[in-house]
Amino acid sequence: MFGKIGNEIINDLKAIIGDNNVITEKERLEDYSHDETTTPEIRKYPAVVVKPVSAQQVSKIVELANERKLPVSTRGAGTGLCGGCVPVYDEIVLSLENMNRIIEIDRENMMATVEAGVPLMEFYEAVEKEGFFFPPHPGEESAFIGGAAATNAGGARAVKHGVFRNFIRGLEVVLADGSIITVGGKFIKNSTGYSLLNLMIGSEGTLGVITKVIIGLVPPPDVAYTLIVPFINLHKAIRVVPEIIKSGIMPLAVEFIEQDVITLSENYLDKKWPGRNAGAYLMLIVDGMSDEVDRLSERLAEICMAHEAVDVLVADNKQKQKDIMDIRSRIYEALKPGLMEVIDICVPRSEVAVFVDKIHEISEKYGMWLPTFGHAADGNIHTHIMKVGMKDDRLDDKEYEGLEEKAEKIKEALYSYSREVGGVISGEHGIGTVKKPYLSMSLDERQVELMKSIKKAFDPNNILNPGKIFDL
Ligand SMILES: Cc1cc2nc3c(=O)[nH]c(=O)nc-3n(C[C@H](O)[C@H](O)[C@H](O)COP(=O)(O)OP(=O)(O)OC[C@H]3O[C@@H](n4cnc5c(N)ncnc54)[C@H](O)[C@@H]3O)c2cc1C
Questions:
Q1: Does 209 contact ligand 1 (Cβ within 6 A)?
Q2: Is residue 380 lining ligand 1, measured as CB closer than 6 Å?
Q3: 342 - beta bridge partners?
Q4: 362 near 411, Cβ under 8 Å?
Q5: Local structure of residue 32 (DSSP, 8 states)
Q6: Are strands 92-95 and 48-50 parallel, antiparallel or unpaired?
Q7: Domain check: are 208 and 136 in the same one?
Q8: Are 397 and 386 in contact (CB under 8 A)?
Q9: pTM for this predicted structure
Q10: Are residues 202 and 106 in the same domain?
Q11: CA torsion angle for 138, 76, 424, 309 (degrees, to 10)?
Q12: Does the beta carbon of 75 lie inside 6 Å of ligand 1?
C-alpha cells in the first residue's frame, strides 16, 4: 500500500535538506530504531532518517512523501514509552533534533516561542534565566518540547497547574499535504471555530508535524518545600490525598511511592531517602510566597498526622530537595533492566486507593512483582510489569515463569478495571503501538470511528505515523 523508499527517494531527500542531514548507514540508524519502551518487539530500523532545519524543509519532505505515498514517523527525543516515534513500516523517520532554537521569550505576554526540537532541560534553564517558571515537568528532561506537545505530557507537577495542554497557546504545524498552518497564538481566549490547537496536542504525530510551539509562562514561586510523609502502607497514604485537596491547599505535586522501589533507587543512585522502613510515602511539594509556604506546610502536616501518617519530614533546602527528586525520578531507570512494560492508567482521584489494592491483589494472584507509584492527586498510576522480582534489595536475575501469558492477563485485568471505575488506559504516555490493541477497552467504538474520520480528513493517504493509536 505504501511506496518504496529506494535510491531515487533518498536523492530527492538529499536535494531538499543536503547529504549531511540524511542518514542511511545501518549503524547510525540504530539510534532511531527504538524509544524508551522496553518491549523488544517494537524495535524497527527506519529506511532513512531525515533531519530538517526549518518548517519549509519539513513541508517539502512531507509533500514528497504524500505524493509518493511514503510513510513518515516523526521523532522528538525518543523518550516516549509506547513506541510512538518508532517506525512500523519501511519508513522515513523525520527527526526534529536540528530544529532546536528558542526563538523568543516575550516578557510582556509571558510566553515563549520555541522550535519543536528544543529539549525540556534547555527550556527550563532559559525560562528561569528570564525570571519565569514553566510548571509542567515530565520525568525525562531530555524530551523535546514538540514531543511533549504531541503526547500532551504531564508529570509530577500537574496537580496545581495542569499538563502541557494547559500551557500551549499556539502551534505551527506541517500538514500531510505539506501545507504549513499556525493554530492558536499569543492570546488566552479563543472561540473562533473548532480548536485545531487542542486536536493537535496529544495527536502523537498522526495529524501533522509540529514545528513551532508558543508556550505560556508563570512567575516563579518565592520558595518550595518538599514534604516526605511515611505511612504504614500505600492504602493509608493514598486515602489522605482527597482530604488534602478538599482542604483547599493545592500542592505543586503529590506523589505516592512504596518503600521497595525507594530502596532500589537509593541503591542505584547511592543516595539516601529521608524516611526509613515505612510501607509507603507521600511526597508533597508546596510552593508560593515564603510565609504562605510555611503556613501551608504546617497545615498539610496536621492533615497527614490526623490521617495516620507516621511522621512528616520537611526538606527545605535545594540540595535535599534535589536528592529526593532524583531518587523519585530515577526509579524508572533503576527498574528498567528487569522491566517488561510500564502501565499508565488514570482513574478518578477517589478510586486510586482501591485501585492500588486491586494491583496488590493481581500481583499476588499471578505471583509477579508489580511495583507501582505515580501521581496520587491526578489519579495517574504507573504500574510496572516486571520480568523479575527483588532479592536483597536488588533486582533478581531470574525471570518469572510463563511471563508473556501472565503479563497479558495482568494488563487485561488492569485495563478493564480502569474502565469499570471510570478511568482511561493512558494518562500521559499516549497510545503509540504498545497500547493500540487495548484502545477499545478504554474508548467505545463510536469514539474510535470519529477519531479515524478525523485522521482521514487530515491525512487521506495515511502517511503520518501510520499504525499508531489505531489501524485504519
Ligand atoms: C524516565 C522517563 C520518565 C518519564 N516521565 C514522564 C512523565 O512524568 N510524564 C509524561 O507525560 N511522560 C513521561 N515520560 C515519557 C516521555 O518522556 C514523554 O512522552 C515525552 O513527552 C516524549 O517526548 P519526546 O521528544 O521524547 O518524543 P518521542 O518519544 O520522540 O515521540 C513521542 C510521540 O510524539 C510524536 N512526536 C514527537 N515530536 C513530534 C513533533 N514535533 N510533531 C508531531 N509529533 C511528534 C512522535 O511521533 C511520537 O508519537 C517519561 C519517559 C521516561 C523515559
A1: yes
A2: no
A3: 384
A4: no
A5: G
A6: parallel
A7: yes
A8: no
A9: 0.96
A10: yes
A11: -10
A12: yes
Site to probe by mutation for ligand 1, drawn from 62, 73, 124, 151 as the one with most ligand atoms within 8 Å of Cβ, is: 151
| Of 332, 319, 234, nearest in space to 283 by CA | 234
Structural domain ending residue among the three candidates 76, 98, 120: 98
pLDDT tens by residue, 226-273: 999 999 999 999 999 999 999 999 999 999 999 999 999 999 999 999
Are residue 294 and residue 234 in the same domain, yes or no? yes
- Give me the amino acid identity at 421: V
Q: Which of 190, 216, 242 is the last residue of a domain?
A: 216
Domain count, the chain: 4
Neighbour count for residue 389 (Cβ, 10 Å) = 15
Q: DSSP letters along 290-328, please? A: HHHHHHHHHHHHHHHHHTT-S--EEE-SHHHHHHHHHHH
**Separation of alpha carbons 317 and 311, rounded Å:** 19
Kindly state if the Cβ of 72 falls inside 6 Å of ligand 1.
Answer: no
For the stretch 168-210, pLDDT in tens is: 999 999 999 999 999 999 999 999 999 999 999 999 999 999 9
186-219 b/e with 16+ CB inside 10 Å = b?
eeeeeeeeeebbbebbbbbbbbbbbbbbbbbbee
Taking the centre of ligand 1 as the mean of its atom positions, its distance from the CA of residue 464, in whole angstroms, is: 17
Q: Residue 28: how many CB atoms within 10 A of its CB? A: 10
Question: Which range marks the domain in which residue 244 is found?
Answer: 223-329
